[in-house]
Prior knowledge:
The protein is mainly alpha-helical. It has helices spanning 22-39, 45-59, 61-77. The radius of gyration is 18 Å and the shape is extended.
Amino acid sequence: MTLRLDKLPDRTPVRMSLSVDPDLASALSDYAEIYRQTYGAEEKPEALIPAMIESFLASDAGFKRARRALHSNASKET
Length: 78
């Protein structure tokens, strides 16, 4: 049977530990407070960090080009 929707990719979260310096921890707490004031929804910095990283990576054109080249080169080697 053929479906129009491809099989969904693995969406199992991967747990990673992260240590940040005190200034960054303070800035992340401030961001979470400003987020609460802006949207009326309280989120812990830990919940905002993945979205912040995704947004950063999505907006980095140099990273996107280099990543495509990295994966293109890797597929050529195999």
